[in-house]
Here is the input.
Amino acid sequence: MSKIYDKLEVCMKSIRKQTDFKPETALILGSGLGDYADEIRIEQTVAYTEIEGFPVSTVAGHKGRFVFGYVKETPVVIMQGRVHYYEGYPMADVVLPTRLMGLMGAKKLILTNAAGGVNPDYRPGDFMLITDHITTGVPSPLIGANADELGVRFPDMSEVYSLRMRGIIKQEAAKLGIGLREGVYVQLTGPAYETPAEVRMCRGWGGDAVGMSTACEAMAARHMGTEVCGISCITNLAAGLSSAQLDHKEVQETADRVAGQFKALVTAVVSSI
Here is the structure.
């Protein structure tokens, strides 16, 4: 048995001592969406600090707990606060919660994030449906001995973000009158915001938005066969595309401004996928 799977089993036993809830869908909430979990029909919560061997998020605005409950009739587990690579954790720990939710029973994963707009046509407050990603700027969560219990050594990544789920998201956004961009998400390490030169690099690679999370989680989820979709909230224009200085306060304010629409879309998607 691999060390990665050993650690997952320790965490899983710790959670099962507190709840036997079996979710169908998992959600990871980014900046500005954290309180969505407080609005569902909650069955139980488990703080990350109560899970043996579990990495704990240190980012302001991220509560740091699993919320188990129902979005309408769909049983879900929501990660209220994610762990980032820039917090100093090895990548295997960054994606541990994603893998753990899969072991809990979730077969579908909805990823959300706050991202910087690299595409010059984007504006703060836009939503972007992630069609693909670029992870060249961060270590792969699959580096090292393969966890055969989770998936194969060389997994196919030709469709990380499910075409089926993307179709449903587009339908639900249209019903709600929510505009939806479609584009490629680039993950870099953070915690510093990108330089103008790095933003030009991301655009040259074919990226439309850039952030510090999500793609590594999507890769780990696909490795274990979880169906994945992702939505970015464009909270700011990346460096060099505007004269504004970048700070986390701006990110949070923009995310908060469009949170109502984001929550409505997530609810509709969870109920339809």
About this structure: The chain has one domain: 3-272. The radius of gyration is 17 Å. Strands lie at 25-29, 41-47, 65-71, 74-80, 108-117, 127-134, 181-187, 209-211, 227-237.
